[in-house]
Every structure is written in structure tokens, then in C-alpha cells.
């Protein structure tokens, strides 16, 4: 097959040769496109190989390994907290037996500081608030409300913070979230639908126990605008909410580290 570009033209030969030279063959657009497709495919194969590093990138095994790592570290942190609490009790016991070189006034001041810091057990009347995700397949229970989005059906960080803040405002003398005592440096944080508190991971339902005047604590919960907003989702989409009076309970003392960690400027 030939075209005008490949066909000789009359009078186009070189002088004195008697022959007609063929002009340079030009690549057809289809061939150029084919070369480009193969080059792009090779680049994609190389990128995929470099990313996978010999692993199957279509599976969730890496995510599962990360989840397992988080739970493993959470259990290790729990064991370290228990060990730290035991050592702290041993040190305090030894200090009491040896006298510690402190006067009675200094010991009384130290005991008051420990109580306010939350490192000692606390006993008193308590109220427990339980928050939970909505049941599977939840729909709007009341007319006029849209069908729920996924975010409507899970407990968020602001929900937990709202309960903790309301309990403090209601005069709580101590608060425990799940099995850990809160202190002034505690941060209630959520990642996805899990709670991360002082290096340990928890899943719903979340229980928050506060020691104080039960009537004042419940009134403070009812008066909180953030909790009033949460109650809309309780009534419409079925988020979990339960408040109970526990009688007299004992909160554990905070057993984690009391060292402060803060950012430092780069020199």
C-alpha cells in the first residue's frame, strides 16, 4: 500500500542520477498512539511494583496489622500503668515507714495535693453516663427528619467531651472514663469510632462515672446545650444514652505518668 508521500513524483529525481529518491517515512498517528500507550502502561507497572514492594496491595492485611498493633500497644500501656501504680504504692509505703524527713504539716499538704491531682482513690456517691452507637440499620424515628448519614449514628469526641465538661460544671470531685481516672492533663480523643485515652484504646459503649452530688450532676447534664443537641439524635436516630445513680463507689487513682510533654523550638 502506498500514499502520495511514498510515491515518486515526476521530475523530483536528483540531477544526473536517473533515479528518484524516496522521501523519509513519516510515522503514522496510529503508530505514535500505540507507542504512547505502551510507554504509559510500562510506567504504571513500574509505579505499582515500586509501591507494593512485593506485597499484595489489593488486600486489607496492612490495615489489619495496624489495628492489631494499636490494640497490642493499648494492652502494653495498661500493663505498664498497673506496674507503675504498684511501684508508686511501694514507694509511698516505704516513705511512710521511714518517715521521709517530712513534717506532719508537709505530709498533710502533700496528701491534699495528691487528692486534687487525682492520684489517690476517691469514694463517694456517683452518677454514671453511658453513651453508645445507634443500632445497625437505624432510621429516622420521627417525621420531618432526614434519613441518617453514617456520622449521625456513632459517638463523636465532642459528645464525650460534652458529658465530661457538664459533670465538672456540676461539681464533680472526680471522674472516671471507662476504667481510667481523669486528671488535669487528660485528653478525651476519638479516632474513627474508637476512644483513645492516655495511650489506651476503647470501643463503645462508653461509660463515664463522676463522684459528686447526684442531683447537681444530673441537673448540669440536662442544662448542657451540647447534650441537648445530642439528645435530638438519641430521640430521632437511636443513639445510646443512659444515666444511673450508683450509690457509693470508689474511683481508682490515676496510675499513669505525671510528666508533662510539650513542644520545643528547633534551634
TrEMBL record:
Q: Which InterPro entries does UniProt cross-reference here?
A: DUF881 (IPR010273)
Pfam families attached to this UniProt entry: DUF881 (PF05949)
Q: Which UniProt keywords apply?
A: Membrane, Transmembrane, Transmembrane helix
Q: Which Gene3D superfamilies match?
A: Protein of unknown function DUF881
Q: Spell out where the chain crosses the membrane.
A: 30-49
In the record, the note on similarity to other proteins reads: Belongs to the UPF0749 family.
Tell me what this protein is called. Answer: DUF881 domain-containing protein
Which species does this protein come from? Streptomyces gibsoniae
Q: What is the lineage of its organism?
A: Bacteria, Bacillati, Actinomycetota, Actinomycetes, Kitasatosporales
Amino acid at each position: 500500500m502506498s500514499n502520495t508521500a511514498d510515491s515518486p513524483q515526476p521530475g523530483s529525481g536528483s540531477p544526473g542520477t536517473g533515479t528518484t529518491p524516496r522521501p523519509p517515512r513519516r510515522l503514522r498517528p496510529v503508530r505514535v498512539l500505540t507507542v504512547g500507550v505502551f510507554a504509559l502502561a510500562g510506567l504504571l507497572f513500574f509505579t505499582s511494583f515500586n509501591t507494593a514492594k512485593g506485597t499484595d496491595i489489593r488486600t486489607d492485611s496492612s490495615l489489619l496489622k495496624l489495628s492489631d498493633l494499636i490494640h497490642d500497644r493499648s494492652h502494653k500501656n495498661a500493663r505498664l500503668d498497673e506496674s507503675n501504680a504498684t511501684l508508686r504504692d511501694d514507694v509511698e509505703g516505704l516513705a511512710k515507714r521511714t518517715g521521709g524527713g517530712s513534717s506532719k504539716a508537709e505530709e498533710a499538704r502533700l496528701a491534699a495535693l495528691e487528692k486534687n491531682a487525682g492520684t489517690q482513690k476517691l469514694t463517694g456517691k456517683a452518677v454514671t453516663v453511658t453513651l453508645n452507637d445507634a443500632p445497625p440499620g437505624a432510621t429516622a424515628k420521627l417525621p420531618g427528619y432526614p434519613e441518617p448519614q453514617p456520622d449521625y449514628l456513632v459517638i463523636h469526641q465532642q459528645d464525650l467531651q460534652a458529658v465530661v465538661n457538664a459533670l465538672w460544671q456540676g461539681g464533680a470531685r472526680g471522674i472516671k472514663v471507662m476504667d481510667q481516672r481523669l486528671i488535669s492533663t487528660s485528653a478525651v480523643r476519638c479516632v474513627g469510632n474508637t476512644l483513645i485515652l492516655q495511650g489506651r484504646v476503647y470501643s463503645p459503649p462508653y461509660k463515664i462515672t463522676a463522684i459528686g452530688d447526684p442531683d447537681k450532676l444530673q441537673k448540669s447534664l440536662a442544662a448542657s446545650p451540647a447534650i441537648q443537641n445530642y439528645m435530638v439524635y438519641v430521640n430521632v436516630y437511636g443513639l445510646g444514652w443512659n444515666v444511673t445513680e450508683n450509690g457509693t463507689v470508689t474511683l481508682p487513682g490515676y496510675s499513669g505518668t505525671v510528666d508533662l510533654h510539650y513542644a520545643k523550638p528547633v534551634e
